[in-house]
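the two lines:
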Amino acid sequence: MNAHKQATGSAYFIVKETESPRTHVLSILVDNKPGVLARVIGLFSGRGYNIESLTVSETSHEKHLSRITVVSSGTMHVLEQIKKQLERMVPVHRVIDLTLMAEERGHGRPLERELALVKVSGTGNDRVEALRLADAFRAQVIDANTEHFIFEITGRVSKIEQFIAIMEPLGLVEVCRTGVAAMNRGPEGM
Amino acid sequence: MSEARQMTGAEMVIRALVDNGVDTIFGYPGGAVLPIYDEIFQQEELAHILVRHEQGAGHAAEGYARSTGKPGVLLVTSGPGATNAVTPLQDALMDSVPIIAISGQVPTPLIGSDAFQEADTVGITRPCTKHNWLVRSVDELPGILHEAFYVAMSGRPGPVLIDIPKDVQFATGTYFPPSEFTHKSYMPKTAGDLDRIAEAIELMAGAERPILYTGGGVINSGREACGLLRELVEITGFPITSTLMGLGAYPASGDNWIGMLGMHGTYEANMAMHDCDVMVCIGARFDDRITGRIDAFSPGSKKIHVDIDASSINKNVRVDVPIIGDVGNVLEDMVRLWRARPEKPKPARLKPWWGQIDNWRARDSLAYKPSKDVIMPQYAIERLYELTKDRDTYITTEVGQHQMWAAQFYHFEEPNRWMTSGGLGTMGYGLPAAFGVQMAHPDALVIDIAGDASVLMTIQEMSSAVQYNAPIKIFILNNQYMGMVRQWQQLLHGNRISHSYTEALPDFVKLAEAYGCVGIRAEKPRELDDAIEEMITVDRPVIFDCRVANLANCFPMIPSGKAHNEMLLADEATDEAVATAIDEKGRELV
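prediction for all of em together
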């Protein structure tokens, strides 16, 4: 069809991003009302921001406030934009970049914990090995019969990733993870 | 003020609108808003203006809002009524226009059942509003109605939507007035940080090649802000340019005005932006139509950015002095601090800079080749300007070449006189917007500078104009093309004019007559003045079919992938220059 293959141009000016992306943890305090989570997630998808992990739960029952913890990645510029975009939403009360705050306070990184339920099935040596490793990782057995275990493990994301990877050859059946819950060290609240 | 009263949800809607200062709303009835329409019928405080399509209601409300500084209100039914309003909502979001949209919804128990005319309106409109609400009970309704006005009008203004199920409209509850409403979470900062402002003034005082780059935020901030901007220009002697949205904040006849900037801005404005040493951006957002190639944007300047929306700062362009606050407040501080300086910077230090600007200005970048035989589109707007400038005139536009020519050749002295779809670029905006403007200013001369393609997108609102005796003038620069689309095809796609020619346009004069308004046609330059005079004199809606040179293109232009100092000027735009304006690298851009 297009005999003369002329490259097409654009009405837009696009500059390639040269900065490398970082991963940050954001805490967002929002009104616990219908649609608020959709609004927050919609902002991320609509503007092309990443969500690596998301947890949400009401944390103040009298004030009907929920705390959303988002792990997102992007350049510093994008992460700043995410914070500002969140801050201008009507049901959003506060947004804290926990990673940035921890760095500023000299704490390294914020405290991050995740809980995972890991189901492993097998017999014989694999089964023994799974239980032994679970013990080493301080994972608890919360359900078992002669053919399977369900482990509950809590810890930093890297620990959970590692545990899951180790369980893979030992008969990993399914995994359920909560996503990251996080706060900063020290006496100050958000 | 505690005259709490029992009333139905539908009554509350009317009460709250009136209590929030609304006297005119635009709308279209339907099943899910009948209770509200029944209340409208039984009262006289609120005028309801019937449109022909909900998109028309939205743009009319935008025109009303932008010409008055008050929020615009539209009322639509559920399902298609609400989805038809999506375009104006997004338009208002991008151009920061305060709009209150009220939509009917199917009764609460039917939500989620795929009922007749049901749509997930809050889901659909979530990304195209500042905020929206689905009202779940009549007890929430008064608070939400008042909050809607608060959200739409505070901070960076924008559209909001309230979705009200029919059973909530029928239910009875207790109403309370706006004075009893308090808001908890959304509190935009309006005062600028004084240290930052002092830092900005310091930079400005030391500048040798300064420029003020202003936008729609100045106009949104209000008349006082525009006055303060003029004062700042006066005392600093800085040159000033503006975005499409900000035209009129500083008068085009002002001594320091160097024209609009951006993709179709003047040579002097863009060159000054490129070469300045201090850029003061006030209420503008470094949009891609403004900056051109972003990595070559004003490379040597310190940048000051005043904006009420923190997310606009450092979004596209890194700035040195960010000031978050209402433009009016910040300008007041700026003027005060500048005046308070013990040593005033000498105006003479800007002389070389003004000399340079005058050299660029001498390039006469808006020049075009006049013709005795055909009406050049630029000439049409020049004549329209000359014949209407001394009247109480408001201009709206559609989107495309005619819009850019209007921005270049119609000169605005006052704010709120220029209504155009800047951010979203909505073809079909201008006609209903003109209708909305006319409803707010019944005695003014309201002209929609239109293109033949755009105007057909919302032409049905001529019927509304006739119904309300709104004497809007639809001035169509008719070249039978989607001119801007064609211009880009010439520039970027090897002159393959794919579907940008309208082969079967209506006879606009007959169309006008069919709607019951007046049709006027001008085909030759010598007929133009008389025809425009006739258009002005007729006290009825007019469709003016101005047949212009078909193949005229809009210059100057910053081609794709180029910087401000690489503009394409009309006299250089030979066929060859157009074909090669965008180099390999520019073409690589997605």
